[in-house]
Design a protein that fits this description.
mainly beta
Length: about 150
């Protein structure tokens, strides 16, 4: 019988920060969505030809009924905050200085919500039910941050 030489060893933990840059192919569906953001500052979605659900970000396969044929639709961009949280501690993963307001936004005409930032407003003024509209970046590169943030309507 072998004895375990590490039986009485105390486990250690190390604190570290990892930055692992990577690239992946966005695919036909995401590429079309991101190209519309970049070239036209326009939000698009896919509508399932079977169940009618409108999905944003668009999906090649309907998450409701798993059908693979969909039509493209343009969205007005306005929407309603359905969930909100505020990051108040600065972390390397945050794209901007705190506080950063994250929200799920149910875009008008879509059956799903988009996660993004809320800007141009104090964190305490953001609430579920707040109507918002996108603010597009001046220089767009074909990424989700081509929407700089959403801001309150009016």
């Amino acid at each position: 019988m072998k004895t375990d030489p590490f039986k009485n060893t105390t486990p250690m933990t190390l604190e570290s920060q990892i930055n692992v840059p990577y690239h992946w192919w966005a695919g036909d569906t995401a590429s079309r969505f991101l190209t519309a953001l970049r070239d036209e500052a326009r939000l698009t979605a896919t509508r399932c030809m079977d169940c009618g659900k409108v999905t944003v970000p668009p999906r090649k396969t309907c998450p409701q009924c798993f059908t693979q044929h969909a039509e493209w639709v343009a969205l007005p961009g306005t929407g309603t905050v359905t969930a909100v949280t505020v990051a108040r501690r600065q972390l390397a993963a945050l794209p901007k200085p705190v506080p950063v307001i994250f929200a799920l936004i149910a875009l008008d005409g879509a059956d799903t919500a988009l996660l993004h930032h809320i800007g141009d407003v104090a964190p305490d003024a953001v609430h579920i039910g707040l109507r918002v509209t996108p603010v597009f970046a001046d220089a767009r590169t074909g990424g989700i941050m081509d929407i700089r943030h959403f801001k309150p309507l009016g």
